[in-house]
């Protein structure tokens, strides 16, 4: 009898504080799983919750990476020594060209955690969502429509710039993958984990 994905994970020999996630690439795989939930969501609640989890995972990857690098590389990536205040902000600022959307994800993750930010709160930052009719809905012939309504989340800025969270996270996941590979943290086990995940997730 074929094992389930849950049984496959439970069979992992090493007990950890993080349910078996031990490396930056492992957390990247969690981000990919969160994104699958986001793209497959068929309710506004499911879409919003998945978007929150994606943002949190994307930001926490910074912590995991900085814990794994040397002191010298830490300074190069952040402009700060290890355990020095401001390393996360320094990383986001210095790597903005390579990792787009991290600041947006940081705002979302921190606002969800604290609700109101004491420092660096952006009053123009708002979130909302829209819906998509599949197939398209024609207002002049509503009785002919027979399809599904799906949520589409996006970040809304009062200055008029709307940022689609799906597109932002898709790009950021790809950029994190390239970035971690460049830093030597896409371990060989990740490909096997991805194959196993694709095998069991459906």
UniProtKB/TrEMBL annotation:
It comes from the Bacteria. This is Uncharacterized protein.
């Amino acid at each position: 009898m074929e094992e389930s994905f849950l049984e496959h994970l439970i069979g992992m020999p090493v007990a950890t504080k993080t349910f078996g996630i031990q490396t930056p690439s492992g957390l990247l795989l969690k981000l990919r799983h969160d994104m699958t939930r986001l793209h497959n969501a068929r309710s506004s609640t499911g879409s919003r919750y998945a978007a929150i989890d994606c943002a949190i995972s994307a930001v926490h990857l910074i912590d995991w990476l900085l814990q794994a690098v040397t002191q010298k590389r830490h300074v190069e990536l952040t402009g700060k020594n290890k355990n020095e205040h401001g390393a996360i902000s320094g990383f986001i600022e210095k790597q903005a060209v390579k990792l787009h959307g991290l600041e947006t994800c940081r705002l979302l993750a921190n606002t969800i955690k604290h609700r109101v930010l004491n420092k660096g709160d952006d009053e123009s930052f708002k979130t909302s969502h829209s819906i998509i009719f599949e197939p398209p809905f024609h207002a002049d012939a509503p009785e002919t429509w027979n399809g599904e309504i799906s949520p589409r989340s996006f970040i809304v800025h009062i200055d008029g710039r709307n940022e689609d969270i799906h597109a932002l996270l898709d790009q950021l996941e790809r950029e994190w993958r390239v970035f971690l590979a460049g830093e030597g943290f896409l371990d060989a086990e990740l490909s096997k984990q991805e194959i196993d995940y694709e095998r069991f997730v459906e």
